[in-house]
Amino acid sequence: MASAIGDLHRSDFEPAPGNGEERQAFVQMNPNRTQIREPPPPHELNGFLTSEDALFQTLHMGAAEVDEDKWMLVVDGIVERPYAITLQQLRQLPSKTLTSFHECYGSPLLPPKKALSRIGNVRWTGVPLHSLIAAAKPHPQASFVWSEGLDRGKFGPVEADRYQKDLPMDKALSAEVLVAYQMNSQPLGRNRGGPVRLVVPGWFGTNSTKWLSRLSVQDRRAPGPFTTTLYNERHPADDPECESRPVWKVQPNSIIVAPTPETNIHGPEVLVEGWAWCCDSKGIGGVGVSVDEGQQWVMAEIGNREDFSWQRFRARLQLSPGSHVVLARARSPSGRSQPMGEGRNHVHRVPIVVR
Ligand SMILES: Nc1nc2c(c(=O)[nH]1)N[C@H]1C(S)=C(S)[C@@H](COP(=O)(O)O)O[C@H]1N2
Ligand SMILES: [Mo]
């Protein structure tokens, strides 16, 4: 695949303009303020694929309006052959479609302690990032790929001339990272980051740069406010002296989609179902369901994983008449579990009444 792109590069691709010309595709910010579209409640996320309407949106500085005729993707940095490609050229390259959960970390200004359920599961189509990077022939010191969006403006205390993120080389070159131009077989809309965005399966949504215009191979982390200032977290168990960690890998998490909260259900058998996900390439390690705050667990049956998708879990409980609070806790293959209490991925609880 890399050689197919290498051939195209030699014959068709333009050398990178090197003067920020790719930013001329920016028209305006609309809206030009932070906008978050919250997802529907978990019991309405029952389908394996989340539709465009039901998928949350997170725009820090608003949405960039992009002129597709002027759009180009620049690939440069410490590489032998910096280049630029048009939208038409990108769409002609060998593409890949994969399913992945998509989760927002939450606000980097007020690190979230409560579960947000900003989650969905969608199918992305695009060109693997590794082939676009290989075509530029990175120098041996290459250690990060910086990505830039065309959006600009204010976010909380920060003013930025672009959204900028970075990926360590091993993730950037993994088979799953895409430079995507479709979601669920449709072109990416404006709020979704169209015409082209990055998609980083298994890692938090913040890494998936929308309105993508430039990929730059570098030997260090990117300096922008969305990499080393914001989106760094400290876990409660961390030594306060140690450095905070970038918001990269998604921790195990789950939502209960059935039963619906606050409903009356026929007992004694109650079917509990939901979705669980984590960054591990092997998928989720297991899900336990409990009605006594974790004193006793019923282990759920776990469904298949498609690429980096979320996975179905299903458990049958025998419940006495009366009020119950059902909770589900996912764990990663290495044994890391969702917290019961405080934490952005704490367990989801659903109160029900059994008749
Ligand atoms: N250029 C740019 N990319 C961005 C953002 C942004 O504000 N600007 N938001 C990030 C965050 S925090 C998340 S969670 C995802 C959200 O993608 P979505 O709005 O398509 O769901 O995009 C990420 N990529
Ligand atoms: Mo996010």
UniProtKB/TrEMBL annotation:
Coiled coil: none
InterPro entries linked: Ig_E-set (IPR014756), MoCF_OxRdtse_dimer (IPR005066), Mopterin_OxRdtase_euk (IPR008335), OxRdtase_Mopterin-bd_dom (IPR000572), OxRdtase_Mopterin-bd_sf (IPR036374)
Needed cofactors: Mo-molybdopterin
A Pfam family: Mo-co_dimer
GO BP annotations, alphabetical order: sulfur compound metabolic process
Record's keyword annotation contains rRNA-binding: no
Residue ranges annotated for the Oxidoreductase molybdopterin-binding domain, each copy included: 61-225
CC annotations in GO: mitochondrion
One GO MF term: molybdenum ion binding
Residue intervals of the Moybdenum cofactor oxidoreductase dimerisation domain: 247-339
Keywords for this protein: Metal-binding, Molybdenum, Oxidoreductase
Keyword Hydrolase: no
Ranges where the record places region Disordered: 1-20
Name of the protein in question: Oxidoreductase, molybdopterin-binding domain-containing protein
Organism the protein comes from: Neohortaea acidophila
